[in-house]
Amino acid sequence: MSFTRRFFATAAAFGLALAVLSGGQALAQRDPPAPPATQAEFRTFIAEFRQALRANDASAVASLTRMPIYYDDAFRDRAYFETRIYRRMFTQRDRNCLQTARPVYYKDGEGTEGFSLFCGRTIFIFTKKTDGFRFEGTHPDD
Fold first, then answer.
1. Could you give the angle at which helices 92-100 and 36-54 cross, rounded to 10 degrees?
2. Dist CA 72 CA 89 (whole Å)
3. The domain 34-140 is classified under which CATH number: 3.90.320, 3.30.450, 3.10.450, 1.10.287?
4. Distance (Å, rounded) from C-alpha 76 to C-alpha 69?
């Protein structure tokens, strides 16, 4: 092997090792973690939400949902949520997934804090306002 080939092979190996050791941090920046008080508040909320899902209790889930909820291009009330939206939005597969899905914290440009849970191709969104955390709705996972 010529000197030039050895040099470039060594440089490539060094670059690869450096990339592996850095854990890709240069490529992907992470959002800061939620403050401890926000994490604790959400843990309490999501435990209650998950319990309502385990019981398949549309009324209990509705009480933990920000109303009116935007669904099918319109704002819908609690009665509509309980009778029509709940069974479509929270299938058995989604209810099972939400029991173990890892919450991902975010804070938007307006200062609203929230967590997202990813189940299949659906993102379940939970936001914190003055009344605490509430389920806000879903969004397709792009």
1. 150
2. 12
3. 3.10.450
4. 5
Output 96-100 pairs: Cβ under 8 A, ≥24 positions apart: 98/49, 98/50, 98/53, 98/124, 99/50, 99/53, 99/54
Domain coordinates of the chain in residue numbers? 34-140
Residue 131 has phi, psi (to 5 degrees) of -90, 10
- Residue 140, preceding bond cis, omega within 30 degrees? no
Per-residue pLDDT reduced to its tens digit, 85-127 = 999 999 999 999 999 999 999 999 898 999 999 999 999 999 9
**pLDDT digits 0-9 by tens, 59-83:** 999 999 999 999 999 999 999 999 9
pLDDT at 114: 97
Reported in sequence order, the residue ranges of 12-141 that DSSP labels E, i.e. its strands, are 69-71, 74-76, 104-107, 113-119, 122-129, 132-140
Give, rounded to a whole angstrom, the gap between the first and last alpha carbons of the chain: 47
pTM: 0.77
